[in-house]
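Human: Here is a favour to ask of a fellow structure person. Comparing notes only helps if you start from a blank page. Give me a protein, with the fold worked out from its sequence. Please set it down just below, with no commentary around it:

Assistant:
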Amino acid sequence: MNDAVMEMPVFDRTQEDLGNIVELGHVNVRVPDQSKAVAFYIMGLGLTRDPYLMAGLDNMWVNVGRGQFHLPTRGIDVLRGTTGLVVPDLEALLRRLDGAKKYLEGTKFSFREADGVVETTCPWGNRIRVHGPDPARFGPMRLGMPYVEFDIPAGTDLKAIVKFYRKILGGIAGVAKDERGSYAWVSCSAEARLIYRETTAPLPEYDQHHIQITLADFSGPHKKLKERGLISEESDQHQYRFLDIVDVDSNKPLFRIEHETRSMRHPMFNRTFVNRNPDMNNRNFVPGYEVGLWALN
């Protein structure tokens, strides 16, 4: 019998922590024309219209892996920043975007390939950066919304943004640096995060775009937000909203972006989304391959 003590493997267990924010559910921007939204989000990006909810002309929900775009058909919203997506095949994406451009003439639609990603702009100016699968950066994701990156005014205190998400929402957040400079990041699930990055470019006034998150501890952050006068809507039993990220010490607003905030008891939490294979058509159809895979095998 070998009495030697086996050396136990060492793991960084903090890498498995999620914090209190367990879902980045959707990005909501209003659109004025559903046909052009279909040309861009469905035909161009290759995403899937939710077949069960908001299937009429007044709104459209678009599935992207386990996240969504919500596109109410009224007015125009432009997110102050960039939404990041992952799709299985960038070459196929470029072909689809090229095919969609004839339906989007005279709009702000554009796309270009640069540095291994595809930068594209929706017909009304929303910027979307599309990546291919990258296990080192995005884990097993091959279809999804791994981040939303907000442009914030130069000089905004990144550490104060981090402190807000930690102290008020109970999230995991930090400040990091890359080739583009320093930024604040917030974990919003095992596969998604928010990013706040300073810019010297002029920013438009805030319109009505919003993001949706889900919290495990739903009531604790609500109490803290309410004490500070930050609750903007008491939606229902499972949801509330707030508009401002503030300095925890002074309650001074730092950045405005509405957070539609849900509990894990919300009826739509962890709902299964239909994702199609956008490269399948009536000419190359093979049974069993019409479903899009959101994660690597």
Remarks:
- Helices lie at 34-44, 90-100, 135-138, 158-167, 219-227.
